[in-house]
Amino acid sequence: MFRVAHKIKTYREMRNYSQEYLASMIGISQPAYAKIEQGKTKITLERLKQISEILMVEHLHLLDEVKVAIQTIQINNTSPSDFVEVLHPDLKIVYEKLVMTLENENRRLIEENERLKILLEQKSGRY
């Protein structure tokens, strides 16, 4: 998590934001935020998303281990489950939550697509 914490700090400094400002934006104290940047506090996916939005950076960019592993999977033609096994334990949890979120969104979109197909068929049958 240290690399993630370091990246968060680097982007915060690039934006000239203080720790106090970022802490207030995400609803925590400055000392609690400082622990995030020091890598002393585990960061949740939701918290990472909050911080990345304020810093105007894609949250996955803060997790470059994910990017490198995905590229490795593409190069080696291995399965995503192989990728999960090589992640740092903290990143593994974040990745698994992200995959679950994306799978749920995919299911929702498939269902919405089916619903829209039915509506389109019903409307075209009326005319």
UniProtKB/TrEMBL annotation:
InterPro entries registered for this protein in UniProt: Cro/C1-type_HTH, Lambda_DNA-bd_dom_sf
Single GO MF descriptor: DNA binding
SUPFAM superfamilies: lambda repressor-like DNA-binding domains (SSF47413)
Domain of life of the source: Bacteria
Stretches assigned to coiled coil: 92-126
One Pfam match: HTH_3
Domain named HTH cro/C1-type: residues: 8-62
Alphabetically ordered keywords of this record: Coiled coil, DNA-binding
Gene3D superfamilies: lambda repressor-like DNA-binding domains
Listed PANTHER family: DNA-BIDING PHAGE PROTEIN, TRACRIPTIONAL REGULATORY PROTEIN-RELATED-RELATED
Protein name: Helix-turn-helix domain-containing protein
